[in-house]
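DNA mismatch repair protein MutS (Duganella vulcania), 517 aa
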Amino acid sequence: MSLFDRLSRILLPAEAPVADYPFAASDIALYRRTAHAHDSVLDAQTWDDMLLPQYSALLARETSIFGQQELHRRLHADGGAVAASAVRVRTLAQDAGQRQRLHAACTGLRRADREVSETLFGAPLPPSPRWIKLLPWLPPALLLSVVLALVTGVVALWGVVVLLWMALMAVQVLHHEAIEEWDRVRATLQQLLRSHSLLAALDDPLTADLRDDAAQAGKLNSRLSQSAAGELPGVREYRDWLWQMNVRHYFASRDAVRTHLDLLRASFRRVAALEADLALARHLAQTPRHCWAQQGGELSLEQVVHPLLARAEPLSFALAGQGAFISGQNGIGKSTLLRTVGLNLIVARAFGFCYAEQAVTPLLPVYSSMQSEDALEGGESLYIAELRRAHELLALAERAPAVFIIDEIFRGTNHLESISAAAAVLHTLSQQGTVIVSSHNLVLAPLLEERLTPWCVSRVGDGLRVAPGVLRETNGIALLAARGFDAAISAKANRVYDWLSDYMAHPADCEGIRSSL
């Protein structure tokens, strides 16, 4: 090892390894909540119903907090700016070498262990206190007091020494935690500025928008840096406790961030957007079944799959001016179909592509009701939770057109009231939006056929098919034997079923009640 290399290792801090710090979901959501809260068209229940936490994790591999926050924002956004991003994603998906170069320039972002969007887009940083201007004079005053006390022998001067030393200690103790937290913020901002400079230095048309202020980014990065010499063993303690360099740098670097907030915000947006596009391009390059969706008033998904299912069975699904009532046997995949349609609609709105061979999708928000359950802590029963969610969906429908995806509505009450309440809510909802609902209450199909086209999910050979119509052969009782129930149980269940079928036959004509809805 050369002398230069040895000195470099002593004087310059070693670059931290890529950590991929496990940020909490609340941290990832902060950028959207602080800077884009008004743009969100996706609510919390739909986020969970559509398995978007798991999907986001799939996209976020080898992506820093910056890219993750931008992906999260886009999934919640109205999709108005998706076209420009889609062009860049398509370009990157076709060029592995270009992806690798840009990815290497962004690697430093993955060393960040602190979320900074709240610092940049949240409440403004307070200005430095006025007393900070006096801080550089305290250490010389302390040293001068020590010298005078030793030379003159005046005992009172030692009291001055003690007071000055206590003042320095008090400043250090009072700001210790704030400085440690700010150091993490500052280090993350420096990684952002460093990646900004590295990306701008590439001869790549996709980073041209970073070149205009790349010089400013580099200068600000230098201003935020601390002296490397101050990191030498023994020097840091002397520098901080006597000369208060950490406190002075804390306030100075914070002021620098306040002064250059517009630059930092612009850098955040552009670097985060580029890294998000890289993540999407990398994902699509590894995903054989995908297409770029066409925007239209109708919905058509040809051979569509769910990206989280390793062995997903492709389905074709289309709507022409109406919603859909979906029936099918237990375990056939109705809920999976709903999630497949919902997730692909959200992804098409957010990113521009679908997991299908061909796709036409409306640029509409998606809201769902699929996982309502008893809430013991809040004292909310299943039916009350379902009523609350149905009320929320009706309120959302009044604001703007949307797609509503609903699975087994009103399971928490008796059969007759479940059908009655479901018919009323679904009919009203379908007048204001597009409803896709699955239910085992097959009588809802003729009740709602003027608003919701009946579709049946069935197995054909080794695959699944969605075809017009209503389920003819149920399998709820047949599953008793398949799951190990005694034959006597199945026989009793069949006798009750036959009696109920005669007593509560499906109505042949719903015109009278249907016209009153």
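Residues 86 and 228 are 42 Å apart (CA to CA). The chain has 21 helices and twelve strands. ok done for today
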